[in-house]
Specification:
The protein is α/β, with parallel strands linked by helices and about 425 residues long. Helices cover about 45% and strands about 15% of the residues. The model has no long low-confidence stretch (mean pLDDT about 90).
């Protein structure tokens, strides 16, 4: 019960702060107070508005917000978000642009399960929609998954990716962003052994910790210092009675958010102080830069305890994938079995979460892959977020990734083979 009481206590604190914000905003807005102008009431109303929104966003899954897309015909086409495969812990979804011909590239974006929803990749999706059929892994919040659905750890995550790749077929181009990079590499190797015809055409790994020890960061140092017992004691709680997943052991989103915020506490504090001042001056809006960023950043999801703990232990501490010793459902995965899937790593020179060297390690593990099917790119001046969603992604990295997909497409390989046969 201790773990459940702690979970409910955090939710109570969040709910209380949301209520205090709403109360302050409503109270300071009474018409009677306008008879005696006082800047304190303006500040109170602004503080209440920002506080209510901040704490309310923490339990709301953001909307994709991709409703239309302007195609080459100059018309706005409706975008339907459809579910291709539905699973208890995550779905495979497709962004279907109505009235547009199928695009030449089928792209599977593997979203991270690291505290935020897949909507964190919204801008990545929009940039790829221009000339790709985009699919993405939409992971569910563990607090909403009944205990009866069982466990979900790194092996289950990998098998989900295997199912998603098999569903989309061999003409798929897989792009894994951050946390799932090593597990996506393992899933591809698993397919290479078990069902080689279902392997994707290309695999692009962006800023992921394939070998966390290649270049140490604060994240990897923390993983080394802390023991598994300490993590389980301090980070794991049991979902309270408010949600469908009552009783499930999780790493709570609110606890993760506290960790995120503490890493840059001064910057976040200034951002919220500045936003209160903008509200006072009537310069804020529902979708201004502050709200666009924090509506997404504050929306966090719980991870299953077994997924979080197995990630720390097996990927970071034991380096099972970096040492090519990863086991899935009793099957030892050999990354060297990948022989005809083109693999590309993308890293940011200023990435302080997954530093340069951690992701490119994947290429050394692909011992069965010819050098002609390996590629890497380090983006100068780019941080972690920039390599998949910022200006660096839009201007430099995305074109390189698209070229890589085009050059290594299985459709192109089949055309080459057909032309060779005709010549012969």
């Amino acid at each position: 019960m201790r773990y459940m009481m702690t979970y409910d206590l955090m939710e109570t604190m969040r709910n209380t702060n949301q209520w205090l914000g709403a109360t302050a905003s409503a109270m300071a807005s009474y018409p009677l107070f306008s008879m005696t102008p006082n800047p304190a009431f303006n500040w109170m109303a602004a503080w209440g508005e920002v506080t209510e929104r901040t704490f309310q966003r923490m339990i709301v899954k953001p909307d994709w917000g991709i409703r239309t897309f302007t195609c080459e015909d100059g018309k706005d086409h409706l975008v339907d978000v459809t579910t291709v495969l539905e699973r208890p812990f995550g779905d495979l979804i497709h962004f279907r642009v109505n009235g547009r011909e199928a695009q030449p590239r089928k792209v599977l974006l593997v979203a991270p399960m690291s505290g935020h929803y897949a909507t964190l990749l919204r801008s990545t999706v929009k940039s790829l929609l221009v000339n790709c059929e985009v699919y993405i892994t939409d992971w569910h919040n563990a607090r909403d998954i009944p205990v009866s659905e069982g466990k979900f750890d790194v092996e289950d995550y990998t098998l989900y990716l295997v199912d998603f790749m098999k569903e989309l077929g061999p003409d798929t181009h897989v792009v894994a962003v951050c946390q799932p990079a090593p597990l996506t590499l393992a899933a591809t190797a698993y397919l290479a052994e078990v069902e080689p015809k279902a392997q994707p055409s290309t695999l692009t790994l962006i800023g992921g910790p394939v070998d966390p020890d290649a270049t140490p960061t604060e994240v990897t140092d923390f993983g080394r210092r802390v023991t598994m017992g300490q993590l389980e004691e301090t980070m794991i709680q049991r979902v309270g009675f408010k949600y469908k997943g009552v009783g499930r052991m999780v790493y709570p989103g609110l606890l993760q958010l506290a960790s995120f915020m503490s890493m840059n506490a001064e910057r976040h504090s200034k951002a919220f102080s500045d936003q209160i001042q903008r509200v006072i001056r009537d310069e804020a809006s529902d979708h201004d830069a502050h709200n666009r960023f924090y509506d997404e950043y504050l929306a966090v999801m719980d991870m299953t305890a077994e997924f979080y703990l197995s990630t720390v232990e097996r990927v970071f501490k034991n380096r099972e994938i970096a040492r090519n010793e990863f086991v899935v459902a009793g099957h030892k995965v050999d990354i060297g079995k990948i022989t005809d899937v083109a693999v590309k790593s993308v890293e940011g020179a200023n990435d302080d979460i997954s530093a340069p060297g951690q992701c490119i390690a994947a290429l050394d593990l692909c011992t069965g892959l010819p050098d002609s099917k390996k590629a890497s790119h380090v983006e100068p001046g780019a941080g972690h977020y920039g390599i998949f969603a910022g200006r660096s992604w839009r201007d430099n990295i995305r074109p390189l990734v698209i070229d890589f997909m085009n050059e290594n497409s299985r459709k192109k390989q089949r055309r080459r083979a057909a032309n060779s046969n005709k010549v012969a």
